Amino acid sequence: MLNWSSTLLTSLQNDQPYPNLSREFPDASVEDAYAVQKQFVRQLEQSKQWGNIVGFKAAVTAPQAQQAMGIEAGIMGVLFENGAREANSTLNLDRPVLFETEIGFVVGKTISTPVTVDNVAEYIRAYMPVIELAAPNLTQRPNGVDIIAANSASYAFIKGTEVTSKISAEIDAIEIRQQQNNEELYCVQAGAIMAGQIDALTWLINEVLSQDYVIQPEQFLITGTIGPMVPAKPGNYKADFAQLGEIKFTVA
What residues pair up with 237 in beta bridges, in sequence order? Predict the structure, then answer.
């Protein structure tokens, strides 16, 4: 089954959607899918196609999404440096994308042992607004195993301006507004994820560690979508993160 990672890499290199692991291996488990993901990530690193690992992401954190995907918990994926996109730019997309408003956290020192909600702030040197460009990019409607194996819809991201102050539960009160062509799509507080941002960050770090990664200084972590996922369409977008600033971009 680990050879499935080579199938994923070939699809990526040929600009084709990923095939669904569960179609070929109906009995594949979440553990199997993570083993494929780890091998896929290793091959991506070796190929240099997406550059180096720069961080990690949470996905499928909402219970209703987990139920729809047939899994019992959130999942994690790996972010690569070539996924970086600039704010105030025009995006040319080569696959269907979902825009997600998220909070990102910049790591200040190596994390190699599990953290708790009480000490996680000691490892974070800054936080920032982020737009994730999530792309499942699968040939058929996926379940959780399919998503995990293909690196949890990891594709691209836009980072906003860093705030270099100690994180606290006050982050949860940040109000986020997403606009498309000057029409407000939603307004939501940053804490509307798991039991709040600190809880989500703690969970993500420990999930990354459970997959045998060590989190390095200057890598960053995004804790999952806050509010609805917005399918990318041509037009102008603005995400207002209140005191954290705005992220604007255009889709060609």
Answer: 180, 249
Query: What are 176's two structure tokens?
Result: 């986020």
| Parent domain of 9 | 4-251
Q: Identity (one letter) of the amino acid at 229?
A: M
Q: Are 18 and 139 in contact (CB under 8 A)?
A: yes
Interhelix angle 30-47/4-13, rounded to 10 degrees, is: 50
**20-to-4, 25, 28, 128, 166 alpha-carbon distances in Å:** 10, 9, 11, 34, 41
Tokens for 151, please give them: 């690196």
Query: Cβ(250)–Cβ(237) under 8 Å?
Result: yes
In angstroms, what CA-CA distances link 233 with 45, 90, 95, 170, 195? 30, 12, 11, 33, 31
Closest to 57 measured CA to CA, from 214, 212, 220: 220
Structure tokens at 16: 């084709």
**pLDDT tens digits for range 115-127:** 999 999 999 999 9
Measured CA to CA, the distance from residue 48 to residue 11 in angstroms comes to: 16
DSSP SS3 for 231 = strand
80 pLDDT exceeds 90? yes
DSSP track, 72-137:
SS-EEEEEEGGGEE-TTSEE--SS--EEEEEEEEEE-S-B-S---TTTGGGGEEEEEEEEEEE---
Indicate the DSSP class of residue 179.
E
Displacement of CA 152 from its chain's centroid (Å): 7
**CATH number of the domain within which 30 lies:** 3.90.850.10
Condensed to tens digits (0 to 9), the pLDDT of residues 128-152 reads 999 999 999 999 999 999 999 999 9
Total tally of structural domains belonging to the chain:
1
